[in-house]
Amino acid sequence: MVAYLSRLRRLLACVFIGVLIGFAVYLFKLQNKSESIAKGEVGESDFHEARVIDLKWDREIREIPDSLASLREKLSAKPRSEAVAEIEVFLRKGKDRKTGLILKFGKGGKIKGWPTLRVFLLDLLLELDPEAAARISREILSSKTSADEWAIALRNVAKGERIGRNRDYLRTRAEELITNPEWQAQPSVGYLNAFDVLVYTEAIESSPLLSGLIQQKDRRDLAHASFLTLDRLVQLQPLDMLTRLKDDRALQESRPEMTAQQFARADLRDTSQQAIVKLWLLDPSRTQIQLHHFSAIFPNNNQLISHNLLTSQEQVSGADLTAHDRDVLAVIQDWKTDPVFESRTQYLEVMAKRVSQFVESADSSSR
After folding, report:
1. Contact 204/167 with Cβ under 8 angstroms?
2. pLDDT in tens for each of the 367 residues of the chain?
3. How far does the chain reach from its first CA to its final CA, in angstroms?
4. pTM to 2 decimal places
5. What residue spans define the domains of the chain?
């Protein structure tokens, strides 16, 4: 009887230990599943987790960019859902690998260089499944990872979702990226290109942010990126942007030449834009420097053609420019005869001479 009880106690002890081990394993798996993409956590099903648990892309990559091309080929050859699942789980693990490549953008926002493995995979996601790329990218944007990742994630959301329905989300996330102190201190290529999201969303609401950065004369990198963004917004939304610039006294005092050049972008054929320029020109606080720069560059049709994260810029045809110049010249001639512009006559003369030369040149080339 004693021997029987002894065996029974040993059996119960083994069962108890087995239960404890099983419970511990359950807790371990539960903890792993509570993780998110940004923090390196896994939230996929047991099926997908079992299939990709051995993925070690961060260690397998050796020769760059050959290994990236090989990885792209392998993933592209798989069923789309399987490839997306593998990328998603790897991103959830929080692992990464620097490639030594420089982030570059080509025509249509196509990326030619990937500084990290995660940036490469985010880029590839858009090719494999735009909708999934947008969903996963929104998770990336829920936590501070890196400026380059955020830039590509913003692009994925913009291209993977219906146009217009995510405007405010994209704008606010882009502003969040731009104002991040750590990323702002040492702006990466992705950081600087993320300004293009504000152009894509035509974010006139972001003009105070851009104005403040332009005024930071000790940060030429930020000021330049902000100026280019503001300049393109003026071209896209001239009426709203010029109205805001007219009331932005701080910017006009800090960057008088730059603001004058923006008003020189106004299309005087449009009566609303014409009215804003008239108010700006006749403002008693207008300085000679501003008036000089305005008249010397009007009409400002200069464009910077570049490869951007989301947007592209088309050149205006010569015929359209000539038609514009003819009509605008007539407006300037009317202003010269208007007594209200008497104090601005010398600047109107400069404008008229400049535009006349454009028209005469176009006429000569057409003969």
Report:
1. no
2. 544 445 545 544 454 445 444 544 444 444 444 345 555 544 444 444 434 444 566 655 554 656 888 889 999 999 999 999 999 999 988 888 888 899 998 887 889 889 999 999 999 999 999 999 999 999 999 999 999 999 999 999 999 998 778 999 999 999 999 999 999 999 999 999 999 999 999 999 999 999 999 999 999 999 999 999 999 999 999 999 999 999 999 999 999 999 999 999 999 999 999 999 999 999 999 999 999 999 999 999 988 778 899 998 877 788 899 999 999 999 999 999 999 999 999 999 999 999 999 999 988 887 6
3. 122
4. 0.83
5. 30-157, 195-367
CA geometry: angle at 44 spanning 39 and 45, to 5°? 155
The torsion defined by the Cα of 82, 88, 94 and 99, in degrees rounded to 10, comes to: 70
SS3 content of the chain, % helix, strand, coil (to 5): 70, 0, 30
Q: 202-207: which pairs have CB atoms within 8 A and are 24 or more residues apart? A: 202/233, 202/236, 202/237, 203/171, 203/174, 203/233, 204/233, 204/237, 204/240, 204/241, 204/244, 205/171, 206/171, 206/174, 206/175, 207/233, 207/241, 207/244, 207/245, 207/248
